[in-house]
Amino acid sequence: MKSLGNIIWFIFGGWLIFIEYLIGGIASCLTIIGIPFGIQIFKLSGLAAFPFGKEVVDKESRSGLLAVIMNIIWILTGGAWAALTHLGLALFFAITIIGLPFAKQHLKLASLALFPFGRDYIKT
């Protein structure tokens, strides 16, 4: 079921989200200051490509004051907009019963898009 969900996701818009995050990650990595943010955007692109069968988890070893500071900078420079976009798409997909699994995946992406530092995704 996860494979079918990923295929449907990718065909009907997942590839577009993946490409957008990939381009954003490359653009962020063009500057030295933007490299940590670019790495987080690449993390988002990996989850955006095939989100079914993956879970967002907190990393105990990497959470701390630096992660909090980087998350605040992230939110102020565009992370909030990315999360709001995924929340809007989740609301759109939640209108129908068929769209509920896709709404759940957008909520997962919204949580990672809001606070990417100190978090990662794993296969379940």
Explain the layout of strands and helices:
Elements: H1 2-28, H2 35-49, E1 54-58, H3 65-93, H4 100-114, E2 119-123
Antiparallel strand pairs: 1-2
Helix pairs in contact: 1-2, 3-4
Keywords:
single chain, 124 residues, mainly alpha, 4 helices, globular
Notes on the protein architecture:
There is one protein chain. By secondary structure, the chain is mostly helical. The chain has one domain (2-123). The protein is 69% helix and 8% strand. It has helices spanning 2-28, 35-49, 65-93, 100-114; strands at residues 54-58, 119-123. The protein has a two-stranded antiparallel sheet. The longest helix has 29 residues, at 65-93. The mean pLDDT is 93.
Give a nutshell description of this structure.
The chain is mainly alpha-helical. The protein contains four helices and two strands, in the order H-H-E-H-H-E. It has one domain.
Order of the strands making up the biggest sheet? 1-2
What kind of sheet is the major sheet? 2 strands, antiparallel
* Strand and helix order: HHEHHE
Structural class by helix and strand composition: mainly alpha
Please indicate the percent range of residues in DSSP E strands (runs of 2 or more): 5-15%
**Count of DSSP helices?**
4
Helix content: 55-70%
Total discrete domains = 1
Mean pLDDT: 93
Question: Any low-confidence stretches, pLDDT <50, length ≥5?
Answer: none
| Spatial separation of the terminal alpha carbons | 13 Å
Number of E-type strands: 2
